[in-house]
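Consider a concrete sample entry:
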Amino acid sequence: MTDAAARSPLARPQRAIGTLDFWRKAVLWLLVASAWLVVVEPAPYELIFALTLLLFLPGGLRVHIVSLPFIAALVLYNLGGAIGLEGATDDKISVWFTIISYYMAVTGIFFCFLVTTDTNSRMAIIRNAYVAAGVIASILGILGYFDVAGLGAQFSYAGRAQGTFKDPNVFAPFIIPPFIFLAQDLLLGKSRRPILAVIGILVIALALFLAFSRGAWGNVVGSAILLVVLTLLLAPDAALRRRVITMSIGGSLLLVVATVVALQVPAIKRLYEVRASLSQSYDVGETGRFGSQAASIPTILTQPQGMNPRHFRYIYGQDPHNVFLNAFASYGWLGGFSFFTLVIMTFWAGWRAVRVRTPWQHHAIAIYAPLVAVLVQGVQIDTDHWRHLYLLLGCMWGMLGATVDYEARQRSRVPLPQGQRTPSL
């Protein structure tokens, strides 16, 4: 562009658009990358989200008709919370619990609207930032576990890695999606720096192991299996299928060897033997997790409005440790059925998005695998306030909208936008 052209009135809007686009991408990356720090309140994620929303509101988000069931389920779920809050508005814990649910729903809807347009570019930013967050969180969890520089008091709990999270059982599931992202890049040969990707996988795997979270162990195994199965089913040629099988076997062997090496440390082995059991002492008995869940069912069946948000803990001395049970207990029948419906619809929406050969099909698979696993994990832990759950939900539904549009353009033979012209896994 000549100097005269750069100074022309027509060039000024283009520069403004380019500048806005740059800051949108930068702040989006910073938002997702900041998710590793949640021990402080409000977390940086909350503050940056407000800025991100302001930047994208003017023309950066798109509402698609296929996202309406997702939005409706979240609205009804939180409406159940509002109804359940009646009579407990003087309880600050219940009120704050409900407000957080509203906020989480907003973040999920934001990510849905965000990735419906400019899907490939925005998903690449989200993945890159999430990998950075996952590696940082994992390193801090490992340092805390080994009490490096006295960090054990801040970044570990009861001999378990927890990083900057309040609970190892929340920390560990958070770092599973970046593990899957890196693994997929290696499987598909998309990693620009494969050695760094392998190092990242090993770091995250070690942090996952040292968190000693049984639910997270099941989560990562389920996510990895689903990733491999979907990739094999949807691979466009035999060469890719052979690569996926070879890489999967090699990677699994590497992780097994790494686990065996880690178990040579006596302290790790002792805690592993305790945590590897399917049930713990706090699970069994009338006042244990399972006993409290069973005792709550008659109350849930006779109280359509629920027990008030967070009141399950008041009544039974602990949280439900089951997101579906918690939905009914905290948000009544309306909230419970809405959440259950959302989960079923998401299984369908994800499968609908992953099976179509779009330019973002690999992104859809990488989101769907850990999303299914974390939704299933909800039967043994309360996931309804996990930031990354709503990020995954929003991205999945957003990609469904993008996929529906992609199919419509193909049927009408409308030229595809730049960057969407070579469908590949």
About this structure: Strands lie at 156-157, 160-161. The CA atoms of residues 327 and 393 lie 17 Å apart.
